[in-house]
Amino acid sequence: MVKPFVPELVYVEPRALEYPLGKELKQKFENMGIEIRHTTSHNQVRNLPGDNHFQRYRTAKSTLVIGIRKTLKFDTSKPSAEYAIPFVTGCMGHCHYCYLQTTMGDKPYIRTYVNVDEILASAEEYMQQRAPEPTRFEASCTSDVVGVDHLTHTLKQAIEYFGKSEHGKLRFVTKFAHIDHLLDAEHNGRTRFRFSINSEYVIKYFEPGTSRLHERMEAAAKAARAGYPLGFIIAPIYLHDGWKEGYREMMEKLNKALPADARKDLTFEMIQHRFTKPAKRVIQKNYPMTKLELDESKRKWKWGRYGIGKYVYTNEEQEDMKDTIGSYIASYFPEASLDYFT
């Protein structure tokens, strides 16, 4: 059982203390006896403790920076939503394959933003531009926001904000089961609560520091009973020995765990494992003992956005994944929709 995240070290940006949540969090961590340091900006955290890269990386993953989000221009977030909404950057999980390792580079510490009202006001402007079309916001593009929300309640505030919204919908995905504080949020069905799930093999070897599969499924059942629309992201789909059986067992467990009323408006998303050349270098530096298969010769090269290519599975392997896991979804959850495979 992974305990809810508590930072070992906290940095505070001076302007964060101009916001009630900034003051409240500083007080909370002082009361917990956690060391608090000051930083001029959440992008400028220097001198993290540790004698080498390995130690500093692990220190960073347990460091929380309380800051403000200055850029209120949101990135687009396909295929799951129109826009990415930024409440948190970074993650306390240690998933070997995670793309945040490359995008965050030498700043793998976790940042939580306290100017939540400003972020939501910016979201409102995006909604108004598209009205009367609905606008979906993805809260998990650069973080696992649930992992830190038991401390900040930022996500809870956003869920209630979108609950009252006319044109906006919120969605996020998590590998953490610490969701009890979100169960009484007034979501009004406007937030889709998604869990990332995988075979026991992938979770065991590549997802340290996250909740186990049965914990995620129990949390999903709780979210469903609290009336949230539910979704599951099967990602990354990874071809290990016995993968077909591994993913079948995963779906069988999910079928047993989910209450009947959770199946009416259920979505699945499927994302195959992929990596880039820079990602491979970073993964092998951060997790030198990883069993993750990163052999370019076994993969197909695919041009990505921004001119960065990535290595994905071959066309035949992709078809096999889609057919195999797609058939499990169809047989266990015939009413669910499969939103995309990528």
Oligomer: single chain
Overall number of strands: 14
Shape: globular
Strand percentage: 15-25%
Tell me what the structure shows:
This is Spore photoproduct lyase. It comes from Salibacterium qingdaonense. Monomer or homodimer. It is an enzyme of class 4 (lyase). InterPro entries: rSAM, rSAM_sf, SPL, SPL_Bacilli, SPL_firmicutes. The protein is an alpha/beta fold and 342 residues long. The chain has one domain: Alpha-Beta Horseshoe (pyruvate-formate lyase- activating enzyme). Helices cover 35% and strands 19% of the residues. It is built from eleven helices and 14 strands. A seven-stranded parallel β-sheet has the order 4-7-8-9-10-11-14, covered by helices on one side. It has a five-stranded mixed β-sheet with strand order 2-1-3-6-5, covered by helices on one side. Helix 8 packs parallel to helix 9 and helix 9 packs parallel to helix 11. The longest helix is centred in the last third of the chain and has 18 residues. The two termini are 31 Å apart. The mean pLDDT is 96.
